[in-house]
Amino acid sequence: MKESAGRRAFRLLNAIVLSLLSLVTVYPILYVVLASFSNPAEFLAHRGLLITSLGFSLDAYRLVLSNTMILHGYVNTIIVVVSGVALNLLMTSLGAYFLSRKGMLWRDPIMFLFVFTMFFSGGLVPYYLTVRGLGLDNSYWALIIPTAVNTFNLILMRTSFLGIPDEIEESAKLDGASHLTILFRIFLPLSMPVVAVMILYYGVGHWNAWFNAMLFIRDRDLYPLQLVLREILVQNDTNAMLVGTDSFDKGLVAETLKYAVIVVATLPVLALYPFLQKYFVKGMMIGALKG
């Protein structure tokens, strides 16, 4: 069947618009990467778009990778991400399973209370006082326990569990399986796409989180990577990373140093996403179609 002229024009226009949108999205990332590898003096004198690196220098990365605060931040963030995602998956899957069971007592009122928290909260001061009152401040737990369950993710996983046929659960119960056995050996393996989405959502959330750390963490040895990054970028504090650098070079290296820190902090998440992409697309389609 021959394609009409209007159809070809639409496809061409669509390709042009999507290409421009892709360029607008990708270029800031490319700019940061190119700036991080540029020669500090040439980059400071440059104005306008950056198409290629200006010279080539690894001084910024050398300073980043030799800085103890960055390394401590990485370790602290990895601890929070691994522990936090494990707790998130456990709590979210438990809540989603029981809220998806038809015979659960008070299921709808409890679900309403969960949804209610998406629109109304107690505010920052009660939240801060609660965490302090539980003795969680200045510890990893202040970054993990208060964010144990995200309501949107709970609803997403619950929707996935609702799509599993009741006959599978009934068959497992006839074989003597408990609720925990059904959840961990049947429901979760059948819901791997949504589990991958949960890992990505919760993992990226913990990796990028800095506000709770700013509120509750006072010991600098417990600073996560994003809080260290905030000090460098927002507060413009690069002096600790420039020890041993000539005073003339400090102002130059500091410019490319900021971009190198951004690359180092963002690279793990960018590297993880391609491995979860196929699950991510499938998992996000859960609940999109109604039978």
From TrEMBL:
Keywords (A to Z) from UniProt: Cell membrane, Membrane, Transmembrane, Transmembrane helix, Transport
Residue span(s) of domain ABC transmembrane type-1: 74-271
Localisation per UniProt entry: Cell membrane
CDD domains (UniProt xref): TM_PBP2
Entry keyword Zinc: no
Organism domain of life: Bacteria
SUPFAM superfamilies: MetI-like
Transmembrane domains' residue ranges: 12-34, 74-98, 110-129, 141-161, 182-204, 257-276
Membrane topology (UniProt): Multi-pass membrane protein
InterPro entries in the record: MetI-like (IPR000515), MetI-like_sf (IPR035906)
UniProt name for this protein: Carbohydrate ABC transporter permease
